[in-house]
Specification:
Family: Belongs to the AHA1 family.
GO molecular function: DNA binding; DNA-binding transcription factor activity
Keywords: DNA-binding, Transcription, Transcription regulation
Distance between the termini: 20 Å
Number of helices: 7
Shape: globular
Largest sheet: 8 strands, antiparallel
Pfam families: AHSA1
Order of helices and strands: HHEHHEEHEEHEEEEEEH
Protein name: SRPBCC domain-containing protein
CATH class of the largest domain: Alpha Beta
Number of strands: 11
Radius of gyration: 19 Å
């Protein structure tokens, strides 16, 4: 943990790297697009800064054809916040629907773009969990009720959560005799490396939403990568709410649950 913090502080230690994070907070960028923000800096230097940010786990890179798309990963910043600030603050995370982002609203085109069908957003996060991949996968699937805090059941009514990690399986919440809600449907499983689901995750209406967990082994630990894409009639605030919701679920609740080996 201390080594991770040293790398994180190193990554934050240069003003250009902090500016890069400010830019990526607004929307993902290719390396070439980032270079355009710094006309006095060589492309090689920008690539070195990005490499340092990747080492600090502050930037997640996804490839799209020949381009490298750089995404801000907010998880390490949340972990740092939790260590020195979070315990002095009362959590406001009551549900995925009422979470309000502490991040500024996306400006300009931002990460939320407009298509003929509506809006699109994409969330990329990564968290390192000090546990074997099999244990993390089991927590994501068989043990999801033990750490997934959010509920769609009416306030005050207890509910149960289950996730069947097989193609066609349901991630479902049930309450009462016949009431319930589907959080997701499993459409791809390669245990313990990857699982993909379709699901609205609290959004309503004409929305197409899917999310993927990828688990990568790293020296006895597991790098959990989340990709969540939604398109359609996306209301203002949903992207930020889900960004904060995933951050709370994965970097706080799941990480603590697995590392404490409950």
């Amino acid at each position: 943990m201390e080594d991770e913090l040293s790398i994180l502080f190193k990554a934050l230690g240069h003003p250009i790297r902090r500016q890069i994070l400010d830019i990526l907070k607004q929307s993902p960028k290719t390396t070439g697009e980032l270079n355009n923000y710094f006309p006095e800096v060589t492309r090689y230097a920008i690539m070195k800064h990005l490499s340092t940010l990747q080492e600090g786990n502050l930037v997640v890179v996804r490839r799209k054809g020949k381009y490298r798309i750089n995404f801000l990963n907010v998880v390490p910043l949340q972990e740092m916040h939790n260590r020195w600030v979070g315990k002095y603050m009362q959590s406001t995370a009551a549900s995925l629907l009422n979470l309000r982002s502490a991040v500024e609203q996306t400006g300009g085109d931002g990460d939320m773009s407009t298509t003929e069908q509506g809006r699109v957003f994409r969330i990329e996060q990564e968290v390192l969990i000090e546990a074997p991949r099999e244990r993390v996968f089991k927590a994501l699937t068989e043990k999801v009720e033990d750490w997934w805090e959010f509920r769609l059941a009416p306030k005050g009514i207890p509910s149960r959560l289950t996730l069947d990690p097989v193609p066609g399986g349901y991630f479902i919440e049930k309450w009462g005799e016949q009431e319930g809600a589907v959080w997701g449907n499993v459409y791809f499983v390669n245990a313990p490396e990857e699982i993909r689901l379709h699901g609205h995750l609290g959004m309503q209406g004409a929305v197409n939403s899917s999310y993927t967990y990828r688990l990568i082994e790293k020296d006895g630990a597991t790098s959990l990568q989340l990709s969540h894409t939604a398109s359609g009639v996306i209301e203002d605030g949903w992207e930020n709410e889900h960004t904060e919701g995933w951050k709370h679920l994965l970097s706080n609740l799941l990480k603590k649950y697995v590392e404490e080996d409950k």
